[in-house]
Write a structure and sequence with these properties.
By secondary structure, the protein is α+β, with helices and mostly antiparallel strands. The chain has five helices and eight strands; from the N terminus they run ββαααβββαβαββ. The strands form two sheets. Strands 1-2-3-4-5 form a five-stranded antiparallel beta sheet, with helices on both faces. A three-stranded antiparallel beta sheet has the order 6-8-7, covered by helices on one side.
């Protein structure tokens, strides 16, 4: 049910139980978890991972686990996110420290956005980014997204970054 996407250096694939160690480590680290709901315990990290798996079942789309093509090392998550109460579908990404600064977030996000536009027929996407999250702001800019406003969501003030529409094919 969950498709696998491949880029030059990454594989966006379905979640596996074996990903829990990496997901738990991500959510145990204040530096990586602070903009995505905050630090949590291993059992809460499992619930967050299960929520990403369940998103695919309930919505027909969701976030993927992102792994490096060479060696299969876990790099983070990226995908499409629209849980109950979200203003509209979002393109999201989160990387582990070892995967940051390599262009992986942009590479994975391009693949996920292409999937949304080409496979799901969407014409727009947003990314909700806390203003202090400079790395994600830079990724959004590289993707061509533009800030169009601000919202309060789940206790966070977030900038709404609007992604460009899909390219027209002739």
């Amino acid at each position: 049910m969950v498709p696998t996407l491949e880029t030059e250096r990454l594989v966006l694939r379905p979640w596996r139980e074996a990903d829990l160690d990496d997901v738990a480590a991500f959510y145990a680290n204040e530096a990586t978890a602070r903009f995505v709901g905050g630090v949590c315990t291993r059992d809460d990290a499992w619930r967050r991972m299960a929520g990403m798996v369940g998103h695919w079942v309930l919505r027909g789309f969701g976030p993927w686990a992102v792994v490096e093509r060479e060696g299969g090392r876990y790099a983070g998550s990226c995908g499409l996110w629209a849980p109950e109460g979200w203003p509209e579908p979002e393109l999201m990404w989160s990387l582990v420290p070892a995967a940051q600064g390599k262009g992986y977030a942009t590479e994975a996000a391009v693949a996920a956005r292409r999937f949304a536009y080409q496979n799901l027929g969407w014409t727009t996407l947003i990314s909700l980014i806390v203003p202090e999250n400079m790395p994600s702001r830079r990724v959004a800019a590289r993707l061509g997204a533009r800030v169009e406003g601000q919202i309060q969501l789940r206790g966070y003030r977030m900038d709404v970054h609007r992604h460009p529409p899909p390219e027209k094919r002739h």
